[in-house]
Write a structure and sequence with these properties.
This protein has 192 residues and is α/β, with parallel strands linked by helices. The protein has one domain: Flavodoxin domain (Rossmann fold), CATH 3.40.50. Helix content is 38%, strand content 19%. The strands form 2 sheets. A 5-stranded parallel sheet has the order 2-1-3-6-7, with helices on both faces. Strands 4-5 form a two-stranded antiparallel sheet. Strand 6, helix 4 and strand 7 form a beta-alpha-beta unit. Helix 1 packs parallel to helix 5. The longest helix is centred in the C-terminal third of the chain and has 23 residues.
């Protein structure tokens, strides 16, 4: 089984979000039949412009190849910290590029239909402040996109309040890591 891991953690290996997501991936990989492709997002992503649609509605080959990579994955895992009510701009740019009609979804007379074969969509994040779940717009956006792509099994695991004075950041992160590991173990059944 093949997972696509989208690493949108600007701080690299020192990222708490990345550490959280790696616990989940390690729990999945112990199943032995899981391979993970990591797509580390970088500054080479740019917003879509008219130049990206040379044939009217046709997208560039680069967008189509990114979209096919997402569509062909058996599961999608995203790691992105909570920033300004959502997540870093690079992830927004990536999602804009992979939302390609005819590859990740299509329009029908009754609405949209997902074309991705993935069984699940997972999102891992950390937040310095105490973010109520309903205020994490990144979760809301990713849940909707998972549905659009046909991967309705969406779950998010986050560690909130890591920079709040008086809270035990280590304990909060360890609890989130335990939740991530438990989710990884339960998701192994989805991949068999």
């Amino acid at each position: 089984m093949h997972l696509l891991f989208i690493n949108a953690c600007p701080r690299g290996e020192s990222s708490r979000t990345l550490a959280l997501s790696r616990v989940y991936l390690e729990a999945l990989e112990t199943a032995g039949n899981v391979t993970v492709t990591e797509r580390r997002l970088s500054g080479n992503l740019t917003p879509l412009t008219a130049d990206d649609f040379p044939g009217g509605q046709q997208r560039t080959d680069g967008d189509v190849s990114l979209a096919r990579e997402l569509a062909d994955a058996d599961g999608v895992v995203i790691a992105a910290p909570y920033w300004e009510f959502t997540f870093p701009a690079l992830l927004h740019l990536y999602l804009e590029r992979v939302s390609v009609p005819g590859v990740t979804f299509r329009y029908t007379e009754t609405g949209s239909e997902g074309l991705c074969r993935g069984k699940f969509f997972r999102y891992f994040f950390t937040a310095g402040g105490p973010v109520p779940a309903e205020e994490n717009l990144g979760c809301t956006l990713l849940r909707h996109l998972a549905g659009l792509y046909g991967m309705g099994d969406f779950k998010a695991v986050g560690a909130r309040g890591l920079d709040v004075i008086g809270l035990d950041a280590t304990a909060i992160l360890e609890k989130a890591k335990a939740d991530a590991a438990a989710l990884g173990l339960s998701d192994r059944a989805l991949l068999s």
